[in-house]
Amino acid sequence: MEGRGLAADKKNAERLGAHLVFADESGFLLIPTVRKTWAPRGKTPIIRHRYKHDRISVISGLAVSPKGKRLSLYFRFHMENITADDAADFLRQLLRELPGKVIVIWDNATIHKGPAVREVCKSPRLHLEPLPPYAPELNPDEGVWGYAKATLSNGRPDDEWELFDELLRIFYDLSCSQRHLRGFIRQSNLPPFLTNS
Fold this sequence. Notes:
Layout: H1 3-16, E1 19-29, E2 55-64, E3 71-78, H2 84-97, E4 102-106, H3 115-120, E5 126-130, H4 141-152, H5 160-175, H6 178-187
Parallel strand pairs: 1-4, 4-5
Antiparallel strand pairs: 1-2, 2-3
């Protein structure tokens, strides 16, 4: 789907009273992401952590209201890798929480296909639209991952529950911030039809 297709989706969404939802998944490991930081000269910062590969997987969707005036963030946490059944549950959540038609724009991942997802797509309110291959820059939800991973960087959660609590705080704060959500739209390579609202 090229920029013209996205613009057409936006126009159709407004005409039909549909929400556009940019969705994606990501994983957060207990092993910290290391970023540059400040320290006194000659005192290299050291991050001590447990070498555990436990993770929390998250599926989220950045929703744009039909007129583009309001942005919302929907998310679900999973202690295992996200499956097609989990993706279908997330679509059901969107249908429960968003009125009218819902257009979900996401990549062509395997978990976005299969019987569970096809079953949810029987709803006349839901339409799925794939992003072009290898085009994460077109998905504003990537900004959510970048922000969350930057906020967690150089941290040291002791276990999955501490990581879960931190992620919950980050995602809750993001869901309350129109400024941040609008920034994720603006930093993507989408055409300006969403950023001018």
